[in-house]
Amino acid sequence: MNKYYPHLGSSLRVGNVLLKNRIVNAPMAHPEMGPNGELTAENIGFYGLRAKGGAAVITVSEGIVHMATGRSHTKHLALDNPMERPSLAECAREIHYHNALASIELSHGGKYAGARAHGVDPSTVTRYGPINEVMADGRVVTEMPEELIYEIADSFAYAAKMCKDAGFDMVLLHAAHGWLLSQFMSPGTNKRTDKWGGESRENRMRFPLLVIEKVREAVGPGFPIEYRMSGAEYVEDGYDIEECIEICKILDGKVDIIYISAGVHENRDSFVITHPSMFLPHGSNVHLAAAVKKHMKHTPVGCVGGINDPAHAEEIIASGQADLVCMARQLLVDPDFPKKALSGRTDEITKCCRCFNCFSTFLGNRVTSCALNPVISRELDHRYSFCPTTPKKVVIVGGGPGGMQAALTAKDRGHEVILIEKNDRLGGQLLCEQYVPFKKDLYDYAVQQAKRVEAAGIDVRLNITATAELIESLKPDALILAVGAKQIIPPIEGIDNPKVKMLDALHHEVPELGQKVVILGGGLVGSETAVYLDGLGKDVTVVEMKDDFAAEANEMHKIALDHQFRDNNVTLHLSTTAVKITDEGLVCRNADGEFTVEADSILIAAGMRADWDTVEELRYAAPWYWSVGDCVKAGKVVDATSQGYYIALDI
Ligand SMILES: Cc1cc2nc3c(=O)[nH]c(=O)nc-3n(C[C@H](O)[C@H](O)[C@H](O)COP(=O)(O)OP(=O)(O)OC[C@H]3O[C@@H](n4cnc5c(N)ncnc54)[C@H](O)[C@@H]3O)c2cc1C
Ligand SMILES: Cc1cc2nc3c(=O)[nH]c(=O)nc-3n(C[C@H](O)[C@H](O)[C@H](O)COP(=O)(O)O)c2cc1C
């Protein structure tokens, strides 16, 4: 029995495989693939790192079984192409080398085929779904003819067999998130009038069951077939948990694991339920899996969504809510989560803060990156990066996320590191997040990095403002400047009024702000602060020059913030300029003229500016210098941590 997390650490027999623990790496569509849609060495490295971290099952994501009709994104693992087999075999081998089981997700986009394909003229894609329809955006969907239903079922079987032959241990049928199989299962989307759909659940399940039957024939007995579906679709006309339970009763015993996710991919609102945002509780979809599990007689059930804590995962299994816990983003942030948790090193786990950097870079630039883990999507570089180096004396100025990461990596490489921080503790701007509930994971990350710095034996000098003289006196070989950014203070009349507060007001458990708070600046920081202060019961007004709030937030986080603003009491004045501050409040101007928003406190959140002055002042104090993070360009944690990491490798 695992002595730390006995349930999470216990094995599970599924078909002809043995899962070594209850942690499954949920599928995450990988970054760009090779020219023919094969897995590249980088893609394989991506999975290898996760396998090394100790999860029982590593799921390769979203292989498309029928490329002519089924691709959803730009490039895909083309599972109807026998030429994919070598890269599949290489990937399965890499996962096995690290003692994990290799699974692969088999998918088809159905009526959303091509929806997210960049550089593809939508009019050239024929989309097939359960019924003829014209989607809200004008895309035409053709009812899938019966011959195509059989052809696609066969293509699932072909793909499954090819993956098995390439060395995979199990296959995952993707029937979640509104793609083809779920379009047939759902009464909201499957309004066919023939035997493949309509009111009758039996008819709606005919296609998914045909797929299962064909796949079983192809892979033979014992080879685990997993099935992923949404516990509730959370869209108009979508099915709810009651319908999901009835569907799962039909699937019970026919598949080897059922994973219960939530939502529909192509629906903005439900997307941030599928991938629970930082505003939702951890494990917010577990109740769906728990509801299904109560009715299952044969098939184990897995849950997913915002789980980042081993004690929580243990409790889910121990209390019988699910048999398996799946994690996607958490295993990006810290692939070693399973190994650390199950060997009693829980304190060393870096937790996902659900900032959505990963998904947004994937949707936008089609690369995957992680705000807190600089290695992600550079796994191969990482493997070779710690090559021998001549130890040097490195001075780092600034103990924010950039400086701390640089210090840790430089120390790991054997350098002598001195970290100078003018504050009385490490953490930089992230210390503002200490009392913000939905930012707790991000704040905890800063605290944890500080502990790592201490444990690494780095020479940390707090309460010291670095000067050129001080740095010169230390005689460093290399200097890293991570001095961050300064708050922009808008040059408006009355800015020195005592009502005016800077962001350091947030450093206090009870922020030093009156009841009526006006936030000057509705960027990401201003908007999140508004949500936080509204939650504390303050009367909050945001004044923003642009015509949108949090305009620089990433796509997914913006959706989550939209939800917050829809449900809270914050007053938003967009396209509005601050004119002056008086004893009454903030005088503003917009298209309707001038008006005053009464305020007890005016919190300035007008943005940050890179501290180039300090960089300029300090940079000549060593033979060579680098700057990282916000002092290069005011940005996000991802810039600070990744630059800190890679600069330290450059020394
Ligand atoms: C309220 C708030 C919320 C935010 N939320 C998010 C978020 O959700 N996600 C996200 O990605 N980013 C967020 N950010 C931005 C993020 O915090 C920054 O991008 C990040 O902290 C930059 O890290 P850094 O190490 O470059 O600089 P900083 O964090 O600014 O650290 C610089 C450090 O240098 C020290 N320093 C400066 N000059 C000297 C000197 N001469 N001698 C010694 N020490 C010195 C400072 O005291 C400071 O500790 C937020 C910022 C704020 C203010
Ligand atoms: C970058 C990214 C890509 C994803 N791609 C897929 C995918 O291809 N197939 C799939 O079924 N789910 C995909 N998901 C959803 C995850 O498997 C998981 O259900 C979701 O992220 C919630 O779990 P988490 O909170 O542990 O991240 C993806 C998630 C992320 C963050």
- Describe the global form: globular
In terms of DSSP E residues, the strand content is 15-25%
Please, how many helices? 22
As residue ranges, the low-confidence spans are none
Total beta strand runs:
29
Largest sheet: 8 strands, parallel, barrel
Indicate the CATH topology of the largest domain: TIM Barrel
Average pLDDT value?
Answer: 94
- CATH homology superfamily name of the largest domain: Aldolase class I
Q: What portion of residues is helical? A: 25-40%
Report, as a whole number of angstroms, the end-to-end distance.
Answer: 45 Å
Sheet with most strands: strand arrangement:
3-4-6-10-11-12-13-14
Give the C-level CATH assignment of the largest domain: Alpha Beta
Q: Which ligands appear in the coordinates?
A: flavin-adenine dinucleotide, flavin mononucleotide
User: If you compute it from the alpha carbons, what radius of gyration comes out, rounded to the nearest whole angstrom?
Assistant: 26 Å
Describe how the helices and strands are arranged.
Blueprint: E1 12-14, E2 17-19, E3 23-25, H1 41-52, E4 57-64, H2 67-70, E5 77-78, H3 85-97, E6 101-107, E7 127-129, E8 133-134, E9 140-143, H4 146-166, E10 170-175, H5 180-185, H6 201-204, H7 206-219, E11 225-230, H8 241-251, E12 257-261, H9 268-274, H10 286-293, E13 301-304, H11 310-318, E14 324-327, H12 329-333, H13 337-342, H14 357-364, H15 379-385, E15 393-397, H16 401-412, E16 416-420, H17 440-455, E17 459-461, H18 468-474, E18 478-481, E19 485-487, E20 500-501, E21 516-520, H19 524-535, E22 539-543, H20 555-567, E23 571-573, E24 577-581, E25 585-590, E26 593-598, E27 601-604, E28 608-610, H21 612-618, E29 625-627, H22 637-650
Parallel strand pairs: 3-4, 3-14, 4-5, 4-6, 6-10, 7-9, 10-11, 11-12, 12-13, 13-14, 15-16, 15-18, 16-17, 18-29, 20-27, 21-22, 21-27, 22-23
Antiparallel strand pairs: 1-2, 8-9, 19-28, 24-25, 25-26
The structure holds flavin-adenine dinucleotide (FAD) and flavin mononucleotide (FMN).
Flavin mononucleotide binds at residues 26-29, 61-62, 105, 174, 176-177, 228, 261, 274-276, 304-307, 327-330, 358-359, 362, 368.
